[in-house]
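User: quick one, sequence for these tokens?
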């Protein structure tokens, strides 16, 4: 009898992380394999082969595969946008150039800032006559002949990827749909994205940019997803269900995601945040910061009451994308981030990365520049190998590189290496401040969860820099993002602009709009194979005070619409975000802007198992006191502070630590996919879910 195994695969810049869950036995198996940047699908399939071998299973046992991909993210971050055309209303061809009055670093920078190149150059923007008003009523008819002329022009120019954004198409998509029909007739090879399908809300510039980003990533993402889907057939003759992680915290089948490629732009980081949120919630923490450290970057987010914070004001690289996405801030501070000297001779770290190929100096694959990983290995904070010995590291090569850089700086090698890590820690700390302090939250009120291959290496410094009292490191932290993929429901988001003052709101009209959005969500869930009784719908609305430019999203309870209750929720959320509200001011009116519905198809989540404390739980102390931990697996010289030099430090295998174990630094805790250096002055306990809970001394452990 075939087993039911679900597999989660997260492709990172250096490693591809794999987690398999046997739904019948509850067994959870994790592993890693090197990423293959030249063709990410190769690393993806190598990961499946490896985890099936560990389970003693075959392709016929695979029930589903969920994937977090960086294909769209990397394309946008690297600015690799192929020739792209834009079709809009006649007279609005300069929409992208006009954009918004936003200048980096404030208006004082206006004299020096040069506006970046547009995603579509001006000569590839064409207008078509026709106009709808704000309610979707036709003011001027659609110019069929003009549309055909534009379609032929793009065909003759060889521009095969097109975005279409007409004024007020969110109110009625009729003109955009006619444009697509004309393109299908005149330019059948074109890949087309319509704003009314990508983002059905007002603000033409943001809607146009989001639509163009969707069009830009569609060819490459579609080719990648379809390639994997085809290669999955080699495991079994049937079509193995294949899901792709979305930025909003849900997954979608590969067949559907190729039609909504922009929804994957933060695919990988979203999975990590969700996995960490579930682990922290089970462990009893409700206010959590997540820090996912990989080979190229570190991604941070905020989790409150088990739910990561969502935003629709995100961007990827230089491209704003107004879609629902988990609010993740990314900083170029991963294991492969390169240490370099500025023209002034000061030490900098990142955002450039050596990636997986050629990688750090210690990989011995042709890398020529010192990276964060090289600094860790020189200081002894990570072992001279990765993945439990599968990847040996060239420590002498890393030391030569660090010594060369140290000589340029006039420092000792230890001071240079610790300086590299100090800069990296502050870069990560600043990213954590962006998701807390800049949003009116006190970082000291949160517990930090660190994961990813490099995410836990600097946790003690982050606690010092930010004043964070507690850090949680999950089991198999390098695979939390892949684990998160197995905890994610199918989810689709739908939005409809409906601008109205709360006092003039027609509950019947709003209820009808919500019903229409719910109907669209139900149709999508049915296509994903969910029965009607499984469908779940979450209603929200974007509200603001009249005259404000931006909105606050609040929940809209099920049942009969109660505008007063929604307004109360808005006042409270506005006060939490900005420190004030106008709930007691009758002259300040509340305005509804967008109506939203999320359709959710629930899946079976892996159980995070509880473990009873062991009677012989190990206690490690380096302060001369008695300890039941009488033998060490090993020791090695580790440098925690340049001035103190190398200290002979115990090395403990995490698999030897049962629930209830206590440790006092300095100590190095190693496992297959990651390492946790515990500095002097810090203590660790192992909780009942085998998480490492790191606190400062003195502690109550």
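Assistant:
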């Amino acid at each position: 009898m075939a087993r039911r195994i679900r597999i989660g695969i997260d492709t990172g810049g250096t490693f591809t992380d794999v987690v398999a869950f046997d739904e019948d036995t509850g067994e959870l198996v994790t592993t890693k394999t090197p990423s293959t940047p030249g063709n990410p699908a190769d690393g993806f399939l190598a990961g499946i082969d490896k985890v099936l071998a560990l389970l003693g299973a075959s392709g016929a046992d695979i029930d589903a595969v969920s994937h977090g991909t960086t294909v769209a993210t990397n394309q946008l971050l690297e600015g690799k946008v192929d020739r792209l055309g834009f079709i809009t209303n006649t007279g609005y061809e300069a929409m992208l150039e006009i954009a918004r009055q936003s200048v980096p670093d404030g208006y004082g920078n206006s004299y020096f800032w040069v506006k970046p190149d547009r995603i579509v150059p001006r000569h590839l923007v064409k207008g078509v006559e026709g106009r709808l008003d704000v309610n979707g009523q036709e003011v001027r008819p659609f110019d069929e002949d003009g549309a055909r002329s534009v379609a032929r022009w793009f065909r003759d120019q060889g521009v095969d990827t097109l975005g279409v954004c007409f004024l007020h198409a969110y109110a009625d998509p009729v003109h955009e749909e006619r444009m697509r029909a004309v393109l299908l007739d005149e330019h059948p090879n074109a890949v087309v994205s319509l704003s009314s399908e990508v983002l059905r809300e007002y603000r033409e510039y943001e809607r146009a940019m989001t639509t163009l980003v969707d069009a830009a990533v569609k060819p490459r993402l579609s080719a990648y997803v379809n390639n994997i889907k085809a290669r999955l057939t080699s495991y079994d003759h049937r079509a193995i269900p294949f899901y792709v992680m979305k930025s909003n915290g849900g997954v979608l089948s590969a067949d559907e995601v190729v039609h909504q490629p922009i929804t994957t732009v933060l695919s990988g980081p979203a999975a990590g945040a969700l996995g960490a949120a579930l682990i922290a919630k089970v462990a009893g923490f409700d206010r959590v910061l997540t820090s996912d450290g990989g080979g190229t970057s570190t991604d941070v987010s905020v989790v409150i009451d088990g739910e990561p914070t969502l935003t629709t004001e995100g961007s990827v690289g230089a491209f704003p994308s107004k879609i629902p996405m988990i609010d993740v801030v990314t900083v170029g501070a991963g294991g492969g981030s390169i240490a370099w000297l500025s023209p002034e001779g000061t030490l900098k770290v990142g955002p450039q990365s050596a990636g997986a190929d050629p990688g750090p100096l210690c990989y011995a694959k042709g890398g020529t520049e010192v990276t964060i990983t090289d600094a860790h290995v020189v200081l002894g904070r990570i072992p001279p190998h990765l993945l439990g010995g599968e990847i040996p590291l060239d420590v002498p090569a890393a030391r030569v590189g660090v010594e060369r850089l140290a000589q340029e700086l006039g420092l000792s090698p230890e001071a240079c290496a610790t300086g590299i890590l100090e800069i990296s820690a502050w870069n990560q700390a600043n990213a954590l401040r962006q998701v807390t302090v800049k949003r009116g939250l006190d970082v000291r009120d949160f517990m930090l969860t660190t994961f990813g291959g490099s995410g836990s290496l600097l946790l003690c410094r982050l606690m010092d820099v930010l004043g964070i009292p507690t850090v949680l490191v999950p089991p198999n932290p390098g695979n939390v993002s892949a684990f998160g993929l197995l905890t994610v429901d199918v989810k689709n988001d739908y939005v409809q602009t409906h601008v109205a003052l709360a006092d003039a709101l027609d509950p019947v009209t709003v209820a009808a709009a919500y019903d229409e959005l719910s109907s669209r969500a139900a149709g999508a869930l049915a296509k994903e194979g969910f029965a009607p009784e499984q469908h779940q719908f979450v209603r929200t609305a974007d509200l603001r005070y009249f005259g404000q430019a931006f909105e606050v999203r609040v929940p809209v309870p099920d049942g009969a619409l109660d505008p007063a209750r929604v307004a109360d929720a808005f006042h409270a959320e506005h006060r939490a975000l900005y420190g004030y509200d106008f709930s007691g001011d009758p002259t300040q009116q509340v305005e509804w802007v967008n109506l939203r519905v999320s359709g959710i198809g629930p899946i079976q989540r892996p159980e995070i198992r509880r473990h009873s404390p062991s009677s012989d739980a190990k206690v490690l102390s380096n302060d001369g006191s008695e300890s039941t931990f009488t033998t060490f697996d090993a020791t090695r010289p580790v440098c925690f502070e340049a001035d103190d030099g190398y200290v002979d430090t115990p090395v403990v295998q995490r698999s030897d630590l049962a629930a209830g174990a206590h440790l006092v630094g300095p100590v190095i805790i190693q496992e297959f996919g990651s390492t946790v250096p515990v500095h002097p002055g810090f203590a660790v306990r192992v909780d009942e879910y085998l998480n490492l809970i790191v606190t400062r001394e003195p502690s109550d452990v």
